[in-house]
Amino acid sequence: MNNMGKELARAIYHNSVLEDNPRQFNNERPLFQIILKIVRVGLQTGELNKEHSELYYLDLIKTQIAGIDFSWIVSADDIDFSTFTKANIYALTKGILNI
């Protein structure tokens, strides 16, 4: 990604986070609705700790996704996005299962 493209991506990311109800973090976003369904199954089957709510788990996942997105924007030339994402999601899921 060239420098101008990186700056554009940073500006879009930054502005979306500053919105009153940023779409990126909106629980109604289809991605988050899918994640909520997965979390509910995990809670129902006992794979996830019922001491925490589904929104607690969703917030952890949203934070991880935002961090991955941000890292990609600022380091796109320095990381393999697929490998980076797989490693981070793996660590997140291992951690969530042990909360």
Proportion of residues in extended strands: under 5%
Total strands: the figure is: 0
The topology string of helices and strands comes to: HHHH
Radius of gyration based on Cα positions: 15 Å
Mean of residue pLDDT?
82
Structure description:
By secondary structure, this protein is mainly α. Helix content is 71%, strand content 0%.
Task: Write out key terms for the chains shown.
99 residues, mainly alpha, 4 helices, 71% helix, 0% strand, globular
Care to give the gist of this entry?
The chain is mostly helical and about 100 residues long.
Compile the SSE list and pairings.
Blueprint: H1 3-18, H2 30-45, H3 54-75, H4 81-96
Helix pairs in contact: 2-3, 3-4
